[in-house]
Structure formats: structure tokens, C-alpha cells
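Action item from last week, closing it out:
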Amino acid sequence: MTELIFATNNAHKLAEVEAVLGDRFRLLTPRDCGITEEIPEEQPTLEGNALQKARYIHERTGRDCFADDTGLEVEALGGAPGVHSARYATDGHDFAANNRLLLRNLAGASTRRARFRTVIALILDGRESLFQGAVEGRIAETEAGCGGFGYDPLFVPEGCDRTFAEMTDEQKNALSHRGRAVRKLAEYLHNRTK
């Protein structure tokens, strides 16, 4: 079984990624490796943040690792909250406050089109690779569902009539930005570790 450090302490993300990668990989968190401090995310792009997080873990452990960064890009808001999605309303990861602010900022908007985008940065055998997944959709008028996390109660993927939060984990992973990026990562890892 191949061990990789996933640069997250978000249990929801960890479960989503484990479900897609399967049992050939054992994922460790930074805490599992004794890293308890906040991992910096100071770059102006998703790609930059994902790379910064992966490099931070790799420099401290010397082990193969990957990190992701995800942004919700809303057309009527010029692509915001984008790279600031997790800290849209506050400095912390306050999902409820982020959702309230997003709905407030979209009040009266002529379009509610949005896109979720995930970038994964992998450092394997000292080599860096990037994988991206995106899903188009729209922001609902009100929150619906109790699954998932973050903006899931507001995001309705294209071709669907339910938010991510109203779907099972399997349904969401089949459609989601993170699921798409992780499947690209998994294909690359499976080919490298045959």
C-alpha cells in the first residue's frame, strides 16, 4: 500500500479523496506526521496555494504528498470568492457565514452561474504535478440539503435540480470538481505505481 500525505485537516475532504483513490493508497494527514500548525495559503491563485501547501509538507517531511485548493467562482461577482472561498466572510472557515454573505452579494443578480474548481498539487519522488477538476452550475436562491460542507447547500451542478448537499457522497463525487481532480490524480498514481 502506497502512503501519501494529504495536506489537509478537513475530515470531509479526506473522506471524499479516500473514496475516490481506493484502498491501494493510505492517506496520512499533517497531524499524523506531527505537523499541527496552520499550513500557509498566501498565493493569489488556486494553483499557487496548492503548490505552497504541498511544498510546505514536503519540506518538513521529505515524503510524497499532495494538497488541493478549491474555489467557487461566481460569474456575477467577477469570479469571487475564488481563491478566498474558505475565508470569504471571516478569517476562519465559517461555512454558514460564507453562505450568508454569498447570498447577500447575489441579491438581485441577473445571473447565478458559477463554477467550482479544484487544483491538486502532487509531489511524488521530488517531482511536482498539477491536476484540475471543474464543474459548472448555479447558486440556488436558498440553502438546501444537509450533506457535504462549505457551499454545497447552495451549489446546483449543471443538469441537476439538487444541490451537492442534497446528494449522497457517491452522487456528489461522481460530479464534483474535487472528484474530477482526484480521478486524474488517481489515474496518474495508478500508472506510476503499477
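Closing note: The mean pLDDT is 92.
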